[in-house]
DUF998 domain-containing protein
Amino acid sequence: MGTGAWGAGWGLVVDYVEAREEIVDNFYRVRRALGVLGLLLPVILLILGIAFDEAEPSISDYYHTLSRDVFVGILTAIGVFLICYTGFRRDDTERFSDDLVTTLAGVAALAAAFIPNRGTLNTSLEPQALTQHLFGVVLCDAAHHLAALVFLLSMAYLCYFKFARTANPGRRAVYVACAWLILAATVATIVAAGLRKIGTPEQSAFVIEHQLVFWFEAVGVWAFSLSWLVKGRADRAIIRTAREAVAKEG
């Protein structure tokens, strides 16, 4: 191969690495945004709840407070980011593509944002949102909790079967731990929510007083956030290594 051909070929390699860097950088920004939004959601709601004396027993209950805009806004942003995120192409060893899993999670996040739960204080079943007027408070309450469940399970699946599959041993341990933490938090949330609704008065009071549902939900959301932040840094490390290799060869 002549010198000119070699130079042209190496130029294509450099262009390819630079193009990949732009793609990975875009993925990193989305992943970082998702991670940061997830980390902030419980924190901001709790701070506002304390500030306005409206601390609620669950994250979903903040829809019925002055913090509604924050709750809906952050969940909407998370949902849109997840739907727009395509991820990597599915290979023959994978059952579902990244795009399918994140789109399902994004739709679930949007549903949880715009289909509110019943609310702790709404004993009269009075509609407080458009969806509740259209479909009824009870049906929306069930749909909201189903959407939250789908969102968390999708994130656990992504951590365990997607992120961990190609990660190095250290990051794989983080992703697997996040997946199990999301699942454990989901189960704990279901149990606590059940005790709050159909448990004895003492059990219900204990769950509400200690905000158990809120903290279990927060742990699940934080685990989801951590996995996305770690995944973003991992991809940045890969492209940094490729860039350094190109610089040395150049």
